[in-house]
Amino acid sequence: MTRTATKAEVAYELVRDQVLRGELVPGSVIQQGALARQLGISTTPLREALRRLMSDGLVELDAHRDARITRLTAEEARDLVEIRRSLDPLAAGLAAERRTQQELELIRSTAAELLPLRTDPGAAELSTHRRFHVAIYTASHNQMLVQTLDGLWDKADRYRRLALEDGRTEEDLDRTHTEHLALVDAIAAGDSDTAAAVMLAHVDASLGARAVARLTSAAAQPVARSLRGIRGGRR
Prior knowledge:
The chain is built from 10 helices and 2 strands. It has helices at residues 7-20, 32-39, 43-55, 74-98, 101-113, 123-139, 143-164, 170-189, 192-204, 207-234, and strands at 59-61, 67-69. A two-stranded antiparallel ribbon has the order 1-2.
């Protein structure tokens, strides 16, 4: 017998989807009454959903029950890329060593469905991108590694969307496509070193890495303006 999802579980999925799609803007205050009415629920299951989203790092709650969408920061973006530089290549290398034929077929089929991520991608495009990487993670046969990487994905998607606002060149899209094909080939050949190396290059050129550069540059601009003001005042 299939269990019916609770109102809090439904609210969690709906609000999470709005956060990841950027409909709830990073840093914005959540108007809980209005959001509850929009979702057709009371504020009680909504608050339960928000507490769960806080544990995911997507929402901030204070002592007064005010809720805010977690801001995007250069520090978090950097942390995500640093973790992925270590764990994604490890997963790809292990997948090359341990994948089954069935898992290889799933990696190949999801790779064939990949769509280029352009400005404002739809849920289906992001979902296919995720399924390809999860297929590789799963083929590593390291459950702790799979859970860790899967847990990072939602946070990373918000930074991918930020980076996509700047657009992508055809060269970017061709490079990403080539890297995906090279990953499949290396895993199929059982070449763990090449799989790990390609995945590392993939992370280094990723949208997440571009988000780090964008946010770091944005954070530096007020400091630069302040320094110019100080220098100007000394003349």
